[in-house]
Specification:
Oligomer: single chain
Distance between the termini: 35 Å
Strand order of the largest sheet: 4-9-5-6-7-8
Structural class: alpha+beta
């Protein structure tokens, strides 16, 4: 009996495809064959990735065009103190996610960090440590010692975590 892929597995597969090829352009049936999915799964899959800010897509009759979403980004601005702390944490084994790089890689990494501890550095020089509880295109939801909070991504310079 054939195992059906979960929506998350399909999302990761599509993001990896777009990272490799840049875009998908072809018929809906070619797309279904490429990801090995049924037609009723295609639109929910695309809508979930579009809502999270990972992709943009167009459907014209039988043709579909899928591209990674592009955003105007603000370059990260770290204070000297933040740079020192981040360097120290990286030496301790933490990994880094640059917030100004939005899209597939960021979303995939953040999905893997749900319910794990992260440290978020902000443009104003402050930081928050806590568990990542969720995220979307614009915000992170974090539980920290200060309580539950919503953090806007545009205010973030860097996110680090320990694998």
């Amino acid at each position: 009996m054939r195992r059906h892929k979960t929506l998350e597995e399909l999302q990761l597969e599509l993001i990896e495809l777009l990272e490799e090829k840049g875009e998908f352009r072809g018929s809906v049936s070619e797309f279904m064959e490429l990801l090995d999915v049924r037609q009723e799964v295609v639109i929910p899959l695309l809508n979930s990735l579009k809502a999270s800010g990972d992709i943009n897509y167009e459907v014209n009759g039988e043709e579909i065009i899928i591209r990674p979403a592009s955003f105007a980004t603000v370059p990260a601005v770290l204070t000297e103190e933040q740079e020192k702390e981040i360097s120290k944490k990286l030496k301790e084994g933490y990994k880094l996610i640059a917030s100004s790089t939005l899209g597939g890689v960021q979303s995939r990494t953040l999905r893997n960090l749900i319910n794990k501890r992260i440290i978020v550095f902000f443009r104003n020089g402050t930081k928050v440590e806590g568990k990542l509880k969720g995220f979307d295109r614009y915000v992170l939801r974090i539980n920290s010692f200060m309580g539950k909070m919503i953090v806007y991504k545009h205010a973030i310079t860097t996110i680090i975590y320990k694998p």
